[in-house]
Amino acid sequence: MANKVTATHPWDAAEHLETEEDMVAYLDAALEDGDPAVIVAVVGDIARAKGMTQIAREAGLGRESLYKALSPSGNPEFATILKVVRALGLKFSVQVAHP
Questions:
Q1: Closest CA relative to residue 70, chosen from 94, 39, 97, 27
Q2: pLDDT at 98
Q3: For residue 92, is it within any domain?
Q4: Phi/psi class of residue 5: alpha, beta or left (left: φ > 0; alpha: ψ in -120 to 50)?
């Protein structure tokens, strides 16, 4: 039996976040997951979709600092995440968790 080779292509979530509704749903799913690394990655994807330079400027951060903070090896402070989320035009809200 011959081995079949499956071609793969890189997939970048930022290329598929076209509307604010897409971004909200994506971030909401990450928050539901609850993994801090996933939440940081999703905030980074959304920031790249909107434009890192613009988001860095609006958040009062350096572009390179923002890339580093939102990288897989980054460990941003919660204050940084809040600044970026605000710069994205989004906000967090809290609701009662039901078991």
A1: 39
A2: 79
A3: no
A4: beta
On whether residue 9 sits in a domain, the answer given is no
What's 19's DSSP letter? Answer: S
Mean pLDDT of all residues belonging to the chain:
93
Within a domain: residue 75?
yes
Let me know: does 75 contact 37? Beta carbons within 8 Å. Answer: no
Phi first, then psi, for residue 52 (nearest 5°) are -60, -40
The model carries a pTM of 0.86
Amino acid at 30: A
The domain tally of the chain equals 1
Low-confidence ranges of the chain (pLDDT < 70): 1
Q: Do residues 68 and 74 touch, judged by C-beta distance below 8 A?
A: yes
Q: 48 in a domain, yes or no?
A: yes
Structural domain boundaries enclosing 66? 18-87
What residue type is assigned to position 83 of the chain? K
